[in-house]
Amino acid sequence: MINFYDTSSLLLKVDELLEEDLFAISSITLDELENIKTSANKDADTKYAARRLLHILDANPSKYKVAIFKQSYMEQIIELDLPITNDSKILVCAQNFKLANPDEEVVFVTNDLCLKVLARMLFETVTSVQADHQDDYSGWKSVILDNDQMSEFYSNQDKNLFDLKVNQYLVVRDSDGEIVDRLCWTDDGYRHLSYQSFSSKWFGDVKPMKGDVYQAFAADSLANNRITMIKGPAGTGKTYLALGYLLNRLEKGKIDKIIVFCNTVATKNSAKLGFYPGTRDEKLLDSQIGNLLSSKFGGKIEVERMIQEEKLVLLPMSDIRGYDTSGMRAGIYISEAQNLDISLMKLALQRIGEDSICIIDGDCKAQVDSIEFAGANNGMRRVSKIFRGEDVYGEVELKHIHRSRIAQIAENM
Questions:
Q1: What's the DSSP call for residue 76?
Q2: What is the number of alpha carbons within 13 Å of residue 178 lying toward its C-beta?
Q3: Could you give the CA distance from residue 158 to residue 187 in angstroms, rounded to a whole number?
Q4: In the predicted model, what is the mean pLDDT of residues 384-401?
Q5: CB 390 within 8 A of CB 362
Q6: In which band, very low, low, confident or very high, does the pLDDT at 269 lie, cut at 50, 70 and 90?
Q7: Are 1 and 107 in contact (CB under 8 A)?
Q8: What is the CA radius of gyration of the chain?
Q9: Who is most buried in 184, 185, 296, 378, counting CB within 10 A?
Q10: Counting Cβ atoms within 10 Å, is residue 269 exposed (0-12), middle (13-18) or buried (19+)?
Q11: Among 329, 310, 330, residue whose Cα is nearest residue 258
């Protein structure tokens, strides 16, 4: 069997293509991919997928066959009474590929409904590609239960009735939508959440703002897991919770230092200021990570003092290879993690020793600042897909913006 992909289905199949023994595409699809990768009308994820596809095709010529569109195929399109479009050209390319390979079962694959209807006239089997919904994973689920359902649920606390991953959270609401319980699924059944707050010199008492249930989940994950990923829009409290917890651990002697892994990427569509003079730490303190830490620690001087006392280490990704936190008892903080691709994120996590913890925060849905980190190549998305369900890992997506009324309104822009 050989799958013949149109362009739309091929873009959704990027990560699984090489698992097939052989597949087929049209020369029209190659032209479309070239146009998509530089199109001003396509989103960053689609353009990145097109670029990655072309790279895969170039590196693996033996994995696929290309059906070249010929001018003579125009007559077939007219005979089928189809409009002359790229879709119809792809369809007749697939038809001629099928005729040229009579001993093979050729399956036409498309996610375009109209093209699927037309393809059924020419092919015995027409299928589509299921889109990957990994970004829908938030680390929690919310359920509304009536009295009978509530009774059944609490009578079966050792049963995973809602198909949760290990360390995934559950919000239980009554018929009026009011929260009645917050739980976490574990290998031993449900664990009820206890109140979590972290006190530190700089942050005071760090606790869920205004009873934010999602911040409560994040605080619980920080206290119970070796690695936690906190994601969400700007102003939801990602940094507040992450640094508050790390400073608490530092002051209580549970960790000996905080190490910030940073990839100082210029904000998308902003003007780049060019060369910054000074040492590595001085350059980093003049970048976005320096601004973030200074705003949370009460100023640049306090950050510099922590660096001098070796309580805080700023480590750019460019210098991370060969680094090993084993024996350091460190709290690793990967901030703005949406600006890491899979290879950088993998390299960062492989630096973490058994006596260290790690917090990842970022917003891979809206704050990716380079096409190189978009789509399927985004490190945060890959971490979520690989780590979810592991007993050392927790993930929480925050929903509520607490920074200000202005920040709440701006999220709608």
A1: H
A2: 2
A3: 9
A4: 95
A5: no
A6: very low
A7: yes
A8: 26
A9: 378
A10: exposed
A11: 330
Q: What is the C-alpha separation between 149 and 31, in angstroms, rounded?
A: 55
Q: Which residues contact 319 (CB under 8 A, 6 or more apart)?
A: 280
Q: Where are the alpha helices (DSSP H) in 192-329?
A: 213-224, 238-251, 280-285, 288-297, 300-308
Phi, psi of 362 (to 5 degrees): 165, 180
One DSSP character per residue, 286-303 reads TSHHHHHHHHHHTSHHHH
For 154, how many CA atoms within 13 A lie in the half-sphere containing its CB?
11
User: How many beta carbons lie within 10 A of that of residue 342, not counting itself?
Assistant: 17
CB 151 within 8 A of CB 145: no
Q: How far apart are CA 7 and CA 258, in angstroms?
A: 46
Q: Write the DSSP symbol of residue 21.
A: S
The pLDDT score that the predictor gives to residue 372 is: 61
- Lookup result for tokens 């905080």: 258
**In the predicted model, what is the mean pLDDT of residues 13-25?**
85
Strand 179-186 and strand 169-173: the pairing is antiparallel
388 close to 137: Cβ distance less than 8 angstroms: yes
Residue 161 is encoded by which pair of tokens?
């009735």
Residue 330 pairs with which residues in a beta bridge?
257
Contact predicate 168/397, CB 8 Å: no
CA 197 to the chain's CA centroid: 27
| Dist. CA 139–CA 118, nearest whole Å | 41
Task: State the pLDDT at residue 400.
Answer: 92
Q: Please state the length of the chain.
A: 413
- Which residues have a Cβ under 8 Å from the Cβ of 270 and sit 6 or more positions away? none
Q: CA-to-CA distance for 159 and 381, rounded, in angstroms?
A: 29
Supply the DSSP symbol for 392.
Answer: T
Task: Give me the chain's average pLDDT, please.
Answer: 88
For 91-149, write each residue's pLDDT tens digit: 999 999 999 999 999 999 999 888 999 999 899 999 998 755 445 799 999 999 999 99
Task: Give residues with Cβ within 8 angstroms of 120, minimum separation 6.
Answer: 126
